[in-house]
## 1
Amino acid sequence: MTSTPDDVLVVDHLVRRFGDFTAVDDVSFRIAPGETYGLLGPNGAGKTTAISVIAGLLKADGGSVTIAGETMRPDAVSVKRHIGLVPQDLALYPDLSARENLVFFAKLYGLRGKELASRVDEVLETIGLADRAKDLSKEYSGGMKRRLNIGVGLLHRPTLLILDEPTVGVDPQSRNSILEAVEALSGEGMAVLYTTHYMEEAERLCDRIGIIDTGQLRAEGTRDELIRLTGGTDTIRLGGRVDTTGQEEAARSMRTLHGVERVDADRHSLSLTVHDAPTLVAEVVRMAAEAGMKLTDVEISRPDLESVFLHVTGKALRD
Amino acid sequence: MRSVVTIALNELKRYMRDRSNIFFVLIFPLLLVMLIGIQFGEGATTGRAAVVGDDSDLRSVISEELGDQEVDVSHGEWDAALEQLARGRLDVAVRVTAEAAAAHDEGREVEVEMVTGSSFAAPIVEQNVRSALSTLGAQRAQEQALIDKGVDRDRAVAALERARAEVQAPRLEVTSVDAEAQEFEGLGQFDFGAAGQLLLFVFLTTLTGASTLIQSRRERVVQRMMTTPMTGAQLIAGQTLGRWVLGAFQGAYIMVASSLLFSVSWGHVPTALVVLAVFALVGAGAAMLLGTLVDNEGAAVGIGVGLGLTLGALGGSMFPLEFFPDTMRRVANVTPHAWGYEAFAELQRRDATLVDVLPQIGVLGAMALVLVTLGAWSLRRSLQRAM
């Protein structure tokens, strides 16, 4: 692992055991400012334990966690100002309103006076609860509670926002709203550590992804880097009407393209095995049209993180 | 320190948000203080007597004499008075007939009829009636002596009244040989009830406050607090202070309200507040322990109420410690209530100051130290377990 002085989070050979069980086993990764890093793994993979150590809730048995240049320990105080934790479980007072919950935690983060009031108002706007701010949180829907749960983590404008499976048990609309909020925060330059077992969320949000299983970080990199680990190729399928001569002509010209490994033809379609389909698809479609193909559909199939997970762990993500 | 205060005030806010808690914290204790005061403090009047008969000088004189002896006097019909006597609502009934009234007016021998009840106070009131008649007889003799010396009646009455106002009666200081009576000397009608209920409710309230700690743990808010810039010690101090604030607030409220409503005397107030503060800390420690050992709010409230009532009963909050047998009195010293009771007894009855109640405060402080330490250890352990 190569880290730079600018890295917001540096996790270095982190180990955490519970008795004989090693929940986090020699995990290392780093997050740069403005970067969203996803820890992708099934339930029980060690994501929450890793996050608990990173957030200072648990003591590491080995290795270290450095946040904004400061070493994290459970008894450390100043380093905790840099992090905002959004735990997997809703950690809110149900008998307090959204505003009261936010004010309480804002005070614990050291905010006071006008700064506190304006920041609470801003966060209420960000999470879309400004008009329900006075309602008790126990009266909220699941999605609203989730948003409030996230809001608490944003109050003090943390350098590193840690979200532990924030969309578990959330309806699709609220889920999308949460994902949009995370994208916006990342866009503002906040470093985000995001754990999930939803492949689609990791693909959508994360600049880099670490695949974790049985406490070990099995692979990490950008989505494309991870895909390449599988050695897999993309498939472009062109469907439509064409005569035999035109089809052969199209197949022949496509085989000359750099990145195309194979072209198979049948009566109604051409199927291309390629590297990096998105960069080739436009050229392929042009060639098909020149050969007289009347295209009715174009389909790209790429290896996904599910394939990567299967490749590096030998089991499916949802096993 | 700000974090500690923030947590403590938040706990108070959450506790008081429950309206049933407002009733139990603010209203119920005062109702019990009043009830116990009425029951135990009935002796503020020496007894109840009916002086029956047409309005006359004799009836007025007897009524006034009895009133001076703090006997509660009523008038009315003879039959009704006898019925009240039979029902135990009167201690004594005195009948002033028209003949007796006329005889009094004419300076002749007066005869009144008296029927006594079977109540505890009846012999005392009977004695008061006898004293009143005896005083009346002596006054009549003095008047007659002056009249016999040639002073006219009006001047004689006026001279005697003036003399009675000028001459100081001999002071009589009574010391009861009854130890219990000595113990309660100097105690107002509502004082005992107020001190007992303060101790009972402060402990109950802090103990039932364990439920908000359990909820905070269950909702994982306590764990989340640990990710904010505060130490574990600050978190524990905040939670302890939160429980303490509940008890101290209620105790101070009972002291102020009972003073204003029932004229309860708390003796040396600063010392009384110190006793309250240390006692509430014992309750806070016990609540921390309960709130971390039990994971269910309903169970915690049940245990808290049961424990609070049992310790309160053992410690003299419901029945005076002075009436306990020796063995039970020794057992009572296991409870913080008994030490609080003794401290307040010293303050309320014997005008004690801080130095006088240092032993009780010391024992309560030691209890608080042990319980708060155990509670803090248990909270830290429960947080580790929950991660």
## 2
Amino acid sequence: MSGKPSKPSSPSSSMLYGSSISAESMKVIAESIGVGSLSDDAAKELAEDVSIKLKRIVQDAAKFMNHAKRQKLSVRDIDMSLKVRNVEPQYGFVAKDFIPFRFASGGGRELHFTEDKEIDLGEITSTNSVKIPLDLTLRSHWFVVEGVQPTVPENPPPLSKDSQLLDSVNPVIKMDQGLNKDAAGKPTTGKIHKLKNVETIHVKQLATHELSVEQQLYYKEITEACVGSDEPRRGEALQSLGSDPGLHEMLPRMCTFIAEGVKVNVVQNNLALLIYLMRMVRALLDNPSLFLEKYLHELIPSVMTCIVSKQLCMRPELDNHWALRDFASRLMAQICKNFNTLTNNLQTRVTRIFSKALQNDKTHLSSLYGSIAGLSELGGEVIKVFIIPRLKFISERIEPHLLGTSISNTDKTAAGHIRAMLQKCCPPILRQMRSAPDTAEDYKNDFGFLGPSLCQAVVKVRNAPASSIVTLSSNTINTAPITSAAQTATTIGRVSMPTTQRQGSPGVSSLPQIRAIQANQPAQKFVIVTQNSPQQGQAKVVRRGSSPHSVVLSAASNAASASNSNSSSSGSLLAAAQRSSDNVCVIAGSEAPAVDGITVQSFRAS
Amino acid sequence: MSLEVSNINGGNGTQLSHDKRELLCLLKLIKKYQLKSTEELLCQEANVSSVELSEISESDVQQVLGAVLGAGDANRERKHVQSPAQGHKQSAVTEANAAEELAKFIDDDSFDAQHYEQAYKELRTFVEDSLDIYKHELSMVLYPILVQIYFKILASGLREKAKEFIEKYKCDLDGYYIEGLFNLLLLSKPEELLENDLVVAMEQDKFVIRMSRDSHSLFKRHIQDRRQEVVADIVSKYLHFDTYEGMARNKLQCVATAGSHLGEAKRQDNKMRVYYGLLKEVDFQTLTTPAPAPEEEDDDPDAPDRPKKKKPKKDPLLSKKSKSDPNAPSIDRIPLPELKDSDKLLKLKALREASKRLALSKDQLPSAVFYTVLNSHQGVTCAEISDDSTMLACGFGDSSVRIWSLTPAKLRTLKDADSLRELDKESADINVRMLDDRSGEVTRSLMGHTGPVYRCAFAPEMNLLLSCSEDSTIRLWSLLTWSCVVTYRGHVYPVWDVRFAPHGYYFVSCSYDKTARLWATDSNQALRVFVGHLSDVDCVQFHPNSNYVATGSSDRTVRLWDNMTGQSVRLMTGHKGSVSSLAFSACGRYLASGSVDHNIIIWDLSNGSLVTTLLRHTSTVTTITFSRDGTVLAAAGLDNNLTLWDFHKVTEDYISNHITVSHHQDENDEDVYLMRTFPSKNSPFVSLHFTRRNLLMCVGLFKS
């Protein structure tokens, strides 16, 4: 009976039987250990026998995996399974990623082999920087306090990013979540608990937004620290904003605080506070547990204003408002990367706004710089499509200022910055677009005044090694220049502390300005009043500039009422465009009626 | 019944001639298999001539073989005849044994696989056409019959037909049977049937199916009416029907207790009396003994204060003394050591802390503190917090054990011998003086094992620690000298779990070798070996009164063993995967078990019935624990979730529905008993522990 030969079996492809080693594999393995020729019947017998033994070993290895509190089978489990069967375990198969083999195919066969790297002994002996693995550490934190999970970084956030996305898409789910036990263990407002006892649930009641006393105190401390004068405290506050879970309930007020702050301080030309507010935006973007898509209609206009606004500071020739524009451009690029979808077309709309400012020949030079900076951060294709064709016209704009024919020193500085920005972002793209022989004459014919300097930059890029090409889209936003710019602005600018006191103004024309500010934002916490200079010339400047401020206030009020982010961005941009014409009134026939209102007010004021 | 009576009468009447006739048929069979030397030896031993041998015909051999397979008593007689032959020739006996073993699966030479398949098909049609109230119970019959037919086809060498048979009919089974079927399908040769443990188990122990009387009569009528000899043969040999009165069970009730490798638990398995009450007399002795001693010894001015403190303590305890629990075992049922004075003081301290315990309920949820182990390179394999919540012991995959102090008190070492000799042994604070204050450390490492440490267990006296490992040893460590004092070697395979008894002195271990063993700390030999599981014993737990031990196994059963007799007194089936964790309730009557199938089942130990199944976890339940007052059940697992269950409501609902024992809960509503679910961020749970004041401590491993 035992000597009876078993019948040859076909390879089974059933799911229940699992996989089995084929006879072909047995032949390959036999060849690898020196067996010249293995018959088909012997290969089949061996394949079946080995398959059964392997399955038993894997089943035992699963037991060791379960008892080690793991869910991944590792090489060590197989070793212990062999050890239980009194078989010598395999040595040299320790791998961190659980797959110690590499795959290769050649000669019509598929092979898996063990990767065996050659190690240079010289390198091992020369470098003594082998790190000792970290020692065991035991950390403890409060997991649950009387049935409520505290929102410490060790605990999961009470409302994950996916839940916040679901809330924004379908608000009706909130009514069901109020009765769900899963949400009951998380720190929430008392409104949801009260709703359990109410038989009739109104949708309107869910719109109320309650903050606990601790959250209100946290909000107050964070906002005061972020815009205060204490720099270390601001760093801690931004760190908390960027990493703490559980801030989603304060997020609407945070975004409103940033949006209103930008509106007020851009009128007041307060560069330092604008920089602080942009750093708050960056901290909120870095927080992994916050879902910001619902608040883009407030954040994007604020960031866009900091990029393309005509004037961001009191002294354009002294303060470094260019650093703020660069920082805000990188923020806008990150926002487009995070939130751009096929439905909202965020990047397309942002690109259109920047290119519209670039197309306009009467754009202020500061706004022109902001548009170029914004477009350059959005990627190489954007530079190729929108900036390169306009290089000739930009050269014609900045040539008079750089050659010294312009009287204004501010415009000269702006032209220099525009040239530096173009020389930084355009050469890598031009290197790919144009062929190898670069001549100054060709570049001058194509790009005008900036041609020779661009030609030198392109030649330099071609001669440099490939590894040193500057990456245009850098993920890390550098905050060092923005911090130093903020300190400079704080030192130079004569800004008083935040106060609600109204100081006396010598000029009669200043009184309507102050009254207009207070009428539009009566509840605003930070109202900054600029002291007037006793010089008569400065008084003339203040008196002459009162009309643009009124226009900007009207534009800001108009933008606040608009719920569409595109319309808001257009409003801000148009407000900036209007300021480029000092005292000249320009009427565009095809504009919207709101813009006509602004134009009419500007005409009456002048 | 009448057939059985006639068989017995016929057998008794022809005892002598039947015995000789069986011998002649055996000789004929041996001759048929060409075993000449064995034949000659057996003829000489039995004084049988060749003339008598020729009188036996082929049909007589078949009849005797059929009788041997059917009757169990004939096996003993045949073995008796075999014993002289075994001493003479080993290889011939081995082949003969193999042939006879395989003959168990072969009824005749002309084996017909188609005949079996047809019989199974008719049985399946019968089950599908039966009434709805009986269909689910009758469908429990399909799996064991399918497996036995598969064995028969495989034993005859028709492997391809066997695989086709399984492929065709496996869709009838429930999901949890497919995994067990996969193990059986690893068999591909007839010889492997003799070595597989599951096959041997299904042959020796019958597959148990609980069925109502009506369903059973329907099934019997089907077998008899349609002359299903094949199915009737399998049923009589391999199935056992545990019938009960009342209505048939529905789908949920059938699935609740099915899934084990040996079917369901018999009623007989849970018949024995279990004393699940707690040992209360021990506490009173500890309290009454030290009461007069300090009063007599004290001559200090503080003497008047001590009697005042003692008197309020005595009154509530003395009132409890009058009560006697009928379910509690007597104090001397198993021998327990005398408590030392220091241990009595520890118990007094524990009782005082228990009086300050927070009463947990649905409105008063517990607070939890989470201990996260960072930078563990080979993973935390176990974690254990001492009963007084002062120390945490973790076992790792790199064979080391590490102990952390969870209080500001440091882990100190015993002083050296010279310093100890100078100490005053009679002083009150001898336990504090003998420790070296300069040697305090926050954490200590214990090295000695050569494999991953799968369990650590603190002694109730807080001076000893047990650990078990993959290297098949159990080590006892001293928490005073921080060294290994005993190595217990009894298991030859990896030891999965080890637990100290709540009263100390005894501990129990379980292993890959399918046994659990009871040890005493002062002996190298196991006192009891609990044998009965069909696969690995994965977890073990002592009853609060130290008289019983519960074990969970990879054969998906939970058993309760009596430490005094070593017998299995409860067998509970219902899990669909390996049992991974066990916990006794504070009162001792209920047992909670968690499994790899993500479920938690509550059992009533008074009769072994299933109370309820808790469905919430999405991965292995690695740890279960009850609160000190027994009102909250906390469970956690590898899905990074901690769930709190209202155990008070579970027991209330169970006692109020206790009238019908044979029927379980009709509906498994998931959220009836669930109080709260707390997810952790990135840490699967390794251990849960309630302190004496009902603060929950969680230990997890940070998964980077």
